[in-house]
Design goal:
GO molecular function: mRNA 3'-UTR binding; mRNA regulatory element binding translation repressor activity; ribosome binding; translation factor activity, RNA binding
Subcellular location: Cytoplasm
CATH topology of the largest domain: Alpha-Beta Plaits
Organism: Sarcophilus harrisii
Family: Belongs to the RRM CPEB family.
Strand content: 15-25%
Structural class: alpha+beta
Protein name: Cytoplasmic polyadenylation element binding protein 2
CATH architecture of the largest domain: 2-Layer Sandwich
Largest sheet: 6 strands, antiparallel
Length: 340
């Protein structure tokens, strides 16, 4: 029996665990990156701001994160899952040590939740936490130990007052970070949008389908993930094959993402590059430096140096345009943890 090694199985869930299919049976392979390039962000339009999403960078540690793999392809080891796993529906009285004890059998880990360092609380305030495993193989072992109900994975944990409570386990499959919808179309960064506030369960294929349904012409979608743990950061990118769809998307500014249990309003902006020359002077008025500003107004949609921005936007009708600047310092950073 697949779950015979589980310490506890909830009777209410036992009826639902039989013949659980493989998690990546329905995943769509992306076409462009080479087999060994499971990067820590959207591989076609990388942005490496080095910022993690849930405040776990303040963990004190003495052990470097190893590179761990759970599959082989053409003789090369390939990661399948992020080492960061969401766990929700925790008992309200379970503390960090008890969460760690509940999952330590799968391998060394750190327990984290948003704003943990600032709050100095021993209990996850909203009933969910993140498990940061040292080994990627630990995530696979955790998945194998789960039982499924209504397409969701569960494992039972206990607290001082609640015994065998099913909590949701939500792993992130790395192949869900990229999706090529139309491989025949060239990818144009100037027809690409940045989507902020993307719900973390949303896969690239789902983001692509939603945007294609709204605007048409989608050829690629990517989910941004953090450099260290390769877990979604809450942002994504969508590339369009035509200018009409691109302009329609950025003109909307906000989009309602609806898919399954997800219903969230997200922000849409042009994707800003940091290696573009000024479209007006081609670097002649700025010493050949890359343009720092991009105008997202549909009457412009151009990169400008400081001189040309001031010159063009002093004209009537353009004085209220606002520049977009690429955010974040593009420097990945290594993070150290103390594994429990």
């Amino acid at each position: 029996m697949l779950f015979s090694h589980l310490d506890c199985l909830c009777p209410s869930l036992l009826l639902c665990h039989s013949s659980r299919p493989s998690l990546n049976a329905t995943f769509v392979s992306f076409l462009f990156p080479p087999p060994n390039s499971f990067h820590s962000r959207s591989s076609l339009f990388p942005i490496d701001d080095g910022l993690l999403d849930d405040g776990h960078s303040d963990q004190v540690g003495v052990l470097n994160s190893p590179t761990c793999y759970s599959a082989h392809q053409n003789g090369e080891r390939i990661e399948r899952f992020s080492r960061k796993v969401f766990v929700g529906g925790l008992p309200p009285d379970i503390d960090e040590d008890e969460i760690t004890a509940s999952f330590r059998r799968f391998g060394p880990l750190v327990v984290d939740w948003p704003h943990k360092a600032e709050s100095k609380s021993y209990f996850p305030p909203k009933g969910y936490a993140f498990l940061l495993f040292q080994e990627e193989s630990s995530v696979q072992a955790l998945i194998d130990a789960c039982i499924e109900e209504d397409g969701k994975l569960y494992l039972c944990v206990s607290s001082p007052t609640i015994k065998d409570k099913p909590v949701q386990i939500r792993p992130w499959n790395l192949s869900d970070s990229d999706f090529v919808m139309d491989g025949s179309q060239p990818l144009d960064p100037r027809k690409t949008i940045f989507v902020g506030g993307v719900p973390r369960p949303l896969r690239a294929v789902e983001l692509a389908m939603i945007m294609d349904r709204l605007y048409g012409g989608v050829c690629y979608a990517g989910i941004d993930t953090d450099p260290e743990l390769k877990y979604p950061k809450g942002a994504g990118r969508v590339a369009f094959s035509n200018q009409q769809s691109y302009i329609a998307a950025i003109s909307a500014r906000f989009v309602q993402l609806q898919h399954g249990d997800i219903d969230k309003r997200v922000e849409v902006k042009p994707y800003v590059l940091d290696d573009q020359m000024c479209d007006e002077c081609q670097g002649a008025r700025c010493g050949g430096k890359f343009a720092p500003f991009f105008c997202a107004n549909v009457t412009c949609l151009q990169y400008y140096c400081e001189f040309c921005w001031a010159n063009i936007h002093s004209r009537a009708g353009r004085e209220f345009h606002k520049p977009l600047v690429k955010e974040g310092a593009d420097r990945p950073r290594q993070i150290h943890f103390r594994w429990n």
